[in-house]
Write a structure and sequence with these properties.
The structure is a single chain. The chain is mainly β. It is built from no helices and 16 strands. It has a 6-stranded antiparallel beta sheet, with no helix packed on it. A 5-stranded antiparallel beta sheet has the order 9-8-7-10-11, with no helix packed on it.
Length: 185
Protein backbone atom coordinates (compact mmCIF):
# COMPACT_ATOMS: atom_id res chain seq x y z
CA UNK A 1 0.00 0.00 0.00
CA UNK A 2 1.12 3.52 -0.75
CA UNK A 3 -0.18 6.89 0.37
CA UNK A 4 -1.40 9.27 -2.34
CA UNK A 5 0.80 11.89 -0.64
CA UNK A 6 3.80 9.89 -1.97
CA UNK A 7 2.71 10.04 -5.64
CA UNK A 8 5.51 10.46 -8.18
CA UNK A 9 5.29 10.71 -11.94
CA UNK A 10 5.71 7.22 -13.44
CA UNK A 11 4.56 5.37 -10.29
CA UNK A 12 2.27 2.39 -11.01
CA UNK A 13 -0.75 1.86 -8.78
CA UNK A 14 -3.81 -0.38 -8.61
CA UNK A 15 -7.13 1.48 -8.34
CA UNK A 16 -10.53 -0.24 -8.57
CA UNK A 17 -8.95 -3.42 -9.98
CA UNK A 18 -7.14 -1.64 -12.84
CA UNK A 19 -3.44 -0.86 -13.25
CA UNK A 20 -2.54 2.81 -13.73
CA UNK A 21 0.63 4.82 -14.11
CA UNK A 22 0.72 8.33 -12.63
CA UNK A 23 1.15 10.91 -15.41
CA UNK A 24 0.62 14.04 -13.32
CA UNK A 25 -0.48 14.93 -9.81
CA UNK A 26 -1.14 18.04 -7.73
CA UNK A 27 -1.50 18.44 -3.98
CA UNK A 28 -4.32 20.90 -3.23
CA UNK A 29 -4.83 22.55 0.16
CA UNK A 30 -7.95 24.69 -0.03
CA UNK A 31 -8.50 27.40 2.56
CA UNK A 32 -11.67 25.68 3.68
CA UNK A 33 -12.09 21.91 3.82
CA UNK A 34 -9.71 18.98 3.70
CA UNK A 35 -6.64 18.69 1.49
CA UNK A 36 -6.76 16.40 -1.54
CA UNK A 37 -4.62 15.10 -4.39
CA UNK A 38 -5.76 15.65 -7.98
CA UNK A 39 -4.13 13.16 -10.35
CA UNK A 40 -4.02 12.20 -14.01
CA UNK A 41 -3.67 8.43 -14.46
CA UNK A 42 -3.15 6.28 -17.56
CA UNK A 43 -4.77 2.86 -17.61
CA UNK A 44 -2.10 0.35 -18.69
CA UNK A 45 -4.66 -2.22 -19.87
CA UNK A 46 -6.56 -0.07 -22.39
CA UNK A 47 -4.47 3.12 -22.67
CA UNK A 48 -7.24 5.48 -21.50
CA UNK A 49 -6.33 8.52 -19.42
CA UNK A 50 -8.52 9.44 -16.45
CA UNK A 51 -8.46 12.14 -13.81
CA UNK A 52 -9.03 11.02 -10.23
CA UNK A 53 -9.16 12.93 -6.97
CA UNK A 54 -8.07 11.31 -3.70
CA UNK A 55 -8.35 12.53 -0.11
CA UNK A 56 -4.97 13.46 1.38
CA UNK A 57 -3.46 10.50 3.22
CA UNK A 58 -5.66 7.93 1.44
CA UNK A 59 -3.83 4.67 0.71
CA UNK A 60 -4.04 2.65 -2.50
CA UNK A 61 -2.35 -0.50 -3.78
CA UNK A 62 1.05 -0.28 -5.41
CA UNK A 63 1.38 -2.28 -8.63
CA UNK A 64 4.79 -3.82 -9.15
CA UNK A 65 5.35 -3.85 -12.90
CA UNK A 66 7.91 -6.21 -14.39
CA UNK A 67 9.99 -5.13 -17.41
CA UNK A 68 11.83 -7.80 -19.41
CA UNK A 69 13.98 -7.53 -22.52
CA UNK A 70 12.36 -9.14 -25.56
CA UNK A 71 12.99 -9.19 -29.29
CA UNK A 72 10.35 -8.51 -31.93
CA UNK A 73 10.44 -11.41 -34.39
CA UNK A 74 7.75 -11.09 -37.06
CA UNK A 75 4.13 -10.33 -37.90
CA UNK A 76 1.68 -13.10 -38.76
CA UNK A 77 -1.66 -11.64 -39.79
CA UNK A 78 -3.03 -9.69 -36.83
CA UNK A 79 -0.54 -11.23 -34.36
CA UNK A 80 3.03 -10.14 -33.67
CA UNK A 81 5.60 -12.60 -32.28
CA UNK A 82 8.15 -11.73 -29.60
CA UNK A 83 10.88 -13.77 -27.90
CA UNK A 84 12.12 -13.38 -24.32
CA UNK A 85 15.89 -12.72 -24.50
CA UNK A 86 16.63 -14.76 -21.33
CA UNK A 87 14.33 -17.78 -21.53
CA UNK A 88 13.80 -17.84 -25.33
CA UNK A 89 10.05 -18.28 -24.74
CA UNK A 90 7.95 -16.95 -27.61
CA UNK A 91 4.59 -15.22 -27.28
CA UNK A 92 2.33 -13.09 -29.44
CA UNK A 93 0.56 -9.79 -28.96
CA UNK A 94 -2.39 -8.65 -31.05
CA UNK A 95 -2.37 -5.67 -33.36
CA UNK A 96 -4.94 -4.08 -31.02
CA UNK A 97 -2.41 -4.13 -28.12
CA UNK A 98 0.30 -2.53 -30.27
CA UNK A 99 -1.54 0.25 -32.14
CA UNK A 100 1.01 3.04 -31.61
CA UNK A 101 4.10 0.83 -31.25
CA UNK A 102 3.65 -0.75 -34.71
CA UNK A 103 4.65 2.60 -36.23
CA UNK A 104 8.20 1.98 -34.96
CA UNK A 105 8.68 -1.81 -34.71
CA UNK A 106 11.13 -3.51 -37.06
CA UNK A 107 12.00 -7.21 -37.16
CA UNK A 108 14.78 -8.23 -34.72
CA UNK A 109 14.35 -5.01 -32.71
CA UNK A 110 14.90 -5.20 -28.93
CA UNK A 111 12.16 -3.71 -26.70
CA UNK A 112 10.94 -4.13 -23.12
CA UNK A 113 7.75 -6.05 -22.34
CA UNK A 114 5.60 -4.68 -19.51
CA UNK A 115 3.76 -7.24 -17.38
CA UNK A 116 1.84 -7.35 -14.12
CA UNK A 117 1.44 -10.67 -12.28
CA UNK A 118 2.01 -12.60 -15.51
CA UNK A 119 -0.44 -10.48 -17.56
CA UNK A 120 1.26 -8.74 -20.49
CA UNK A 121 0.18 -5.10 -20.60
CA UNK A 122 2.23 -3.94 -23.59
CA UNK A 123 5.72 -2.95 -24.67
CA UNK A 124 8.05 -0.04 -23.97
CA UNK A 125 9.94 1.27 -26.97
CA UNK A 126 13.27 3.06 -26.77
CA UNK A 127 12.87 6.87 -26.83
CA UNK A 128 14.07 7.00 -30.44
CA UNK A 129 14.51 4.55 -33.32
CA UNK A 130 16.30 4.62 -36.66
CA UNK A 131 13.99 4.19 -39.66
CA UNK A 132 14.72 4.35 -43.40
CA UNK A 133 12.76 6.72 -45.68
CA UNK A 134 10.98 4.73 -48.42
CA UNK A 135 9.00 7.50 -50.07
CA UNK A 136 9.27 11.30 -50.18
CA UNK A 137 9.07 14.13 -52.68
CA UNK A 138 12.30 15.75 -53.83
CA UNK A 139 13.14 19.02 -52.07
CA UNK A 140 12.80 22.26 -54.03
CA UNK A 141 15.95 24.36 -53.86
CA UNK A 142 15.51 27.84 -52.41
CA UNK A 143 12.33 26.96 -50.53
CA UNK A 144 13.89 26.97 -47.05
CA UNK A 145 13.37 30.54 -45.81
CA UNK A 146 10.69 29.48 -43.35
CA UNK A 147 12.06 26.11 -42.23
CA UNK A 148 9.73 24.32 -44.61
CA UNK A 149 8.98 20.62 -44.19
CA UNK A 150 7.62 17.86 -46.38
CA UNK A 151 5.98 14.50 -45.78
CA UNK A 152 8.12 11.34 -45.74
CA UNK A 153 6.99 7.72 -45.38
CA UNK A 154 9.35 5.47 -43.42
CA UNK A 155 9.80 1.69 -43.69
CA UNK A 156 7.17 0.91 -41.02
CA UNK A 157 4.47 2.94 -42.82
CA UNK A 158 4.59 5.96 -40.50
CA UNK A 159 4.31 9.40 -42.16
CA UNK A 160 6.66 12.01 -40.66
CA UNK A 161 7.21 15.70 -41.38
CA UNK A 162 10.88 16.16 -42.31
CA UNK A 163 13.09 19.03 -43.59
CA UNK A 164 13.34 19.49 -47.36
CA UNK A 165 16.91 18.09 -47.60
CA UNK A 166 15.80 14.55 -46.62
CA UNK A 167 15.80 12.07 -49.53
CA UNK A 168 14.64 8.50 -50.09
CA UNK A 169 16.87 5.84 -48.46
CA UNK A 170 18.06 8.30 -45.78
CA UNK A 171 18.03 6.82 -42.27
CA UNK A 172 16.27 9.06 -39.75
CA UNK A 173 16.12 9.20 -35.97
CA UNK A 174 12.42 9.28 -34.98
CA UNK A 175 11.03 10.09 -31.50
CA UNK A 176 8.76 7.18 -30.47
CA UNK A 177 6.80 9.22 -27.90
CA UNK A 178 5.48 11.79 -30.39
CA UNK A 179 6.33 10.22 -33.76
CA UNK A 180 8.41 13.22 -34.84
CA UNK A 181 11.63 13.62 -36.80
CA UNK A 182 14.71 14.29 -34.63
CA UNK A 183 17.65 14.15 -37.06
CA UNK A 184 19.45 12.07 -39.62
CA UNK A 185 21.00 8.97 -38.13
Amino acid sequence: MISVNDFKTGLTVEVDGDIFTVLDFQHVKPGKGAAFVRSKLKNLRNGNTVEKTFRAGETIGRALIENRDVQYLYASGQDHAFMDNETYDQFTLSEEQLKWELNFLKENMNVKIVSYQGEILGINLPNSVELRVVETEPGIKGNTATGATKNAKVETGLNVQVPLFINEDDVLLIDTREGKYISRA
